[in-house]
Specification:
mainly alpha
Length: about 280
């Protein structure tokens, strides 16, 4: 009878001199590629120019990466990184926090919407569909890195993470989260494609995303190992404390979107349209 799974996969695919290719990096890049093509389908559905999508991609990628890194540095190890600020730039050494991206990405998209006169909720309702898929890829990357796993378990699918010198099976919480985020992605995609009434209600998909993802994140933290020393002895860890305001925001957005008298959500504010200023007129 199988009592545990020995997990000893090397996080590094191959190295060539100073170049090191890791599963995490490949999965992270693959997530953005998949996101781009899915959002492209959304844009084509609403007859929006792909030039706008290219600009959106740049804003979203930069916002997400900055948020992921700063989230880890400021939420989990503030004392070290505030005294060694340049260490924040060493993203290759690891240390990303999804709660940081959950703050920085909406902020970056807000600035993008102000610049291009787009509807903020309209854009968020589309972005979160692929963000859920991104969460799936990132958690699989965490599994390949043998990191962010759970406490000891006697369940037959417990993982012994050899690269972390573990000798007892632990909950593979990376897999639990990956499956949850993938299911949330398919649910949001189904609502977007099949449920026109809900899709057109600005803020509904964004609210559903926040509520589902961070409720699950709050629950799963109960069987995760504490990531940093200061969490020991706390009734709720940092991940749970940070999840609470996102869940409350999600519930508020769901109620707000369902109670609105004018539910129709449009891509641009007022009569605004997108003009590609990067195209120079030929002389």
């Amino acid at each position: 009878m199988l009592l545990s799974i020995v997990w000893g996969i090397d996080p590094e695919i191959f190295s060539l001199g100073p170049i090191h290719l890791r599963y995490y990096g490949v999965l992270f890049a693959l997530a953005f590629v998949c996101d781009y093509f899915i959002i492209m389908r959304f844009f084509k559905r609403d007859k929006l120019p792909l030039a706008l999508l290219d600009k959106l991609t740049m804003w979203a990628v930069i916002s997400a990466i900055v948020g992921l890194r700063l989230g880890h540095c400021l939420f989990y190890e503030p004392a070290y990184f505030l005294s060694h600020p340049f260490a924040m730039l060493k993203i290759w050494e690891g240390g990303l926090a999804s709660h940081g991206a959950a703050v920085a990405l909406p902020l970056g998209l807000f600035l993008f919407c102000r610049k291009y006169k787009m509807s903020y909720l309209w854009l968020l309702d589309r972005i979160v569909v692929v963000v859920a898929l991104t969460g799936f890829f990132i958690r699989i990357g965490n599994l390949m890195n043998s990191e962010i796993y759970g406490v000891q378990t006697s369940l037959p699918w417990g993982f012994i993470f050899e690269h972390r010198s573990e000798v007892v099976p632990k909950h593979p919480t990376q897999i639990y989260e990956a499956i949850a985020y993938l299911l949330i992605f398919f649910l949001l995609l189904h609502i977007f494609v099949k449920k026109d009434g809900l899709r057109k209600r600005g803020g509904f998909l964004f609210g559903a995303f926040l509520t589902l993802v961070f409720t699950f994140r709050f629950i799963i933290e109960f069987i995760k190992e504490r990531q940093v020393a200061f969490e020991e002895g706390m009734p709720l860890d940092m991940g749970q404390l940070l999840s609470i305001p996102f869940v409350l925001t999600g519930v508020f957005l769901l109620a707000y979107s369902l109670r609105r008298r004018a539910p129709e959500s449009k891509p641009f504010v007022g009569n605004a349209t997108f003009v590609d200023t990067s195209k120079k007129k030929k002389k």
